[in-house]
Amino acid sequence: MLTEIDDRVLAAVNLHAVLGALPRLADVAPEASRLLADLPRPVLLSVRVVGGDTLRLVFARDGVRLADGDPAGATAATLVFRSPAHLNAVLDGRGSPLPLAGPAGLRFLVRVFTPLSDLLGRYLRPSDADLADPAFTETHRTMLLEVAVGAITVVANRDRSGRFSAAQMTDGDLDIAVGDALRHRLRVRDHRLSRIPVTDTAPRAVFRFADLQTAGDVLAGRESALACVGDGRIAIRGYIPLVDNTSRILDRVGHYLGK
Prior knowledge:
Layout: H1 7-18, H2 22-28, H3 30-36, E1 43-49, E2 54-60, E3 63-66, E4 75-81, H4 84-91, E5 98-101, H5 103-124, H6 128-131, H7 134-158, H8 160-166, E6 172-178, E7 182-189, E8 192-196, E9 205-209, H9 212-219, H10 225-231, E10 234-238, H11 240-257
Parallel strand pairs: 1-4, 6-9
Antiparallel strand pairs: 1-2, 2-3, 4-5, 6-7, 7-8, 9-10
């Protein structure tokens, strides 16, 4: 099994799956809503990796969303990372990004974005004391699932082992669900994966965790997805090659999220 980590893939996971989970954090964590409540106007934040990708997010009082344009009247701020390795080091607590912003943008970065990033880190890597709180634990597992689903698409499309698994997948939609409460949808087209909105249209296959605890254990690396399929804690139905290869990609995702 391939175990080495590709620094560029890790940077894409950190950018699109980890920082890309900030919109979900704003939806589920009351502390995030309080940080956003005092924004005088929306902020368009660009997170740019030299030689890599760019993530653009809009922060507003009512939440965080992926930018699909330049919102009128928004404050602009940019965080630049010199390389994929620089981004990985910063998210690992071993460096700082290069901010490009005016006074209002700098205030946002210090007073809103940095606390939000710290809060995201706390939910993704909680302390034992945090996990003693059932409400915190539920949000922790919800955020792990959000990050993992985002990471599946990155790893399937960019990692050597992930691409091998994706090459075995035929076209179709696949749902990743937790019980009957949470559902995410992936689309496979020409051996590439993307996230799409969940609709009433039935997917070609379903990969369902029995509960958030099982999802959290698999996504935190405490359990193997393949083992949970074997003992029934993960149920699969539909076109089996889709879910079988998704479970292999998910195990590979664990290598990246564990870094």
